Amino acid sequence: MIKKLKPYPQYKDSGVPWLGKVPAHWEVFPNRALFVEINDQNNLNEQLLSVTINSGVIQQRELLNVSSKKDSSRIDKSNYKLVMPGDIVYNKMRAWQGAIGLSQYRGIVSPAYVVQKPKYQESGRFFHYLFRTPLFIKEAERWSYGITSDMWSLRPEHFKLIYSPLPPLPEQQAIVRFLDWAERRIRKAIRLRQRRIKLLQEYKQALIHQAVTGQIDVRTGQPYQEYKDSGVEWLGKVPKHWEVVRLKYVARLKSGESITSENIEETGKFPVYGGNGLRGYTNAYTHEGEFVLIGRQGALCGNINYASGKFWASEHAVVAQPKLKFSVRWFGELLRIMNLNQYSMAAAQPGLAVERIQNLKIPFPSIKEQETIDRFINEQIVSFDAAIAATRRAIELLKELRTTLIAEVVTGKLDVREAAAQLPETPESEMEDLAEIEEETPEPQEEEPLLQEEADD
């Protein structure tokens, strides 16, 4: 149905650069003719709302539940603004990034937000789609002012000067109906592909786990013929011919060397590795060869990374230096499935307890078998990562399709009236909530820019 959409039969120049030509029967008005700013304050018992870039207006408790964000609202909320269902709300410091949308809720927002009530209440959903397009966001950026980009503000008096299209109400309803339908279809397609990525990742990890612990013989894809009890609870049985040894006999675990941020550059001769992989470059090195690195501090505790050649290992990484010859990829993936983070010492900044993990027992096949497992792991990683990358690209294409489709429909480049009339009625039980979608790209922090807001006043 989407592929069959065509332009309107007649167009006119809107006189507005960001809109270009619009259907001949559409009107174009400044926002002052379409909205009334609301500053209803002293509603202390209402729930807090936030405006996000990904989802528009949401309940703040939902934002706090699914992220690491903290409640940054003021204790005194007497000057917070009342929002009613159907109002358009935007964060004036982030409108140029897309933090704008239609509210489904009654609640209050910080003074850093602007509340606009559509004069034509039935038009709210149409404007929700329009104002979240890259075209409008770019226009909002043009009207935003500030010393630097992180202080740009779309003030209410400038929002009123932006021109917006206004199709006839029945056509707005057709546009909204069609876009709601298209959104559901695209969201479902995205969700299916996200589930596929999750399954691929789980299957990849399961295969690697089975390979490095000897649950399967990677040469045949079948279990080994004989097993023995490893004496290790998490490991269970291992192939009869494998050894089980303490980690300290296989590798010496030692933290890297201290390095200041001033000595780390974006470009340089030797890479610097920390607890989460590459941090930058420097002109000296501490190690040469191929090594497994273990994250040593904080949230990165137990992370597994690989480094090769000449490099600097920082104090935030533990370097596994071989005592016995082993295959690096096999060893690193074995450490990964051991979940070393569980052996961190609880503190304000958790740190890996090397003295605890070095006494852990691990399976140890012959070096020849390790190398066979290593090749198998590499093959699996390449194969699965290619499938995952292709699926992620498919998701990005769907998101691009959604963005382009919405922009072309709400600005009148495509006529959806006939298509909307042919759509079946959608039962309420089949309506999907935007919050169900797990976005791949984290959105910027939704902090309340109170200092900037006060400066604007």
From TrEMBL:
Protein origin, superkingdom: Bacteria
Q: Where is the composition biased (Acidic residues)?
A: 427-457
Q: Which UniProt keywords apply?
A: DNA-binding, Restriction system
Task: Tell me the ranges covered by the Type I restriction modification DNA specificity domain, including all copies.
Answer: 239-377
Q: Which GO annotations describe the biological process of this protein?
A: DNA restriction-modification system
GO terms (molecular function) for this protein are: DNA binding
Record family assignment: Belongs to the type-I restriction system S methylase family.
| Name under which the protein is recorded | Restriction modification system DNA specificity domain-containing protein
